[in-house]
Design a protein that fits this description.
Radius of gyration: 17 Å
Helix content: over 70%
Oligomer: single chain
Structural class: mainly alpha
Shape: globular
Order of helices and strands: HHHHHHH
Number of strands: 0
Number of helices: 7
Distance between the termini: 42 Å
């Protein structure tokens, strides 16, 4: 299994490893995506405040609860990261031990995209729909970057996204 994952990782990261400064570029994209998605969320919150929307409280609480639960869950199970388990040359330099699953980056981006989707569905506002589109595309990019960067297994990304979707379904549509 170790050899299979190492070969898989070598294959998916090859293009980045061959680029001059590929690791630096991928790390920059990773950091940029995190800031970009957070910015989309803050724009939404400002828009909700300016419009005195009754959706504001839930738009804050559901992502907050998701973030806290994912943080506690991953610290509790404390699964190892790919670079701890396999001898890989990771592209995103990280020295964190454990706390790999679920991916908090993925869960956070996904719950933000779901929050935007919920608000867009209710308000049918063009700005919110555009923000939601950018957030959803960013989720795909984050999934790619975190796996290719070597800091998460695909299962970490999948569980992070699924967890956020479940919290969104419960927090936005079931309650």
């Amino acid at each position: 299994m170790t050899r299979m994952y190492k070969e898989y990782y070598e294959r998916i990261s090859k293009r980045w490893r061959e680029k001059p400064n590929g690791s630096l570029l991928l790390s920059g994209i990773d950091n940029g995506l995190r800031g970009f998605v957070a910015s989309l969320y803050f724009i939404l919150l400002i828009w909700l405040v300016l419009n005195q929307s009754p959706l504001l409280l839930r738009a804050i609480l559901v992502p907050l609860v998701t973030f806290v639960v994912v943080s506690v869950w991953r610290a509790t199970i404390n699964w190892k990261r790919p670079y701890e388990v396999h001898d890989i040359n990771l592209l995103i330099k990280k020295d964190t031990q454990g706390k790999s699953m679920p991916s908090r980056h993925m869960a956070s981006a996904t719950i933000i995209a779901c929050t935007l989707l919920w608000v867009a569905t209710i308000t049918n506002n063009t700005l919110v729909w555009v923000l939601e589109l950018f957030a959803s595309l960013s989720c795909v990019a984050i999934a790619y970057v975190r796996i290719v960067g070597g800091v998460h297994f695909p299962r970490d990304i999948a569980v992070g996204a699924i967890t956020a979707i479940v919290f969104a379904l419960v927090g936005f549509w079931a309650i």
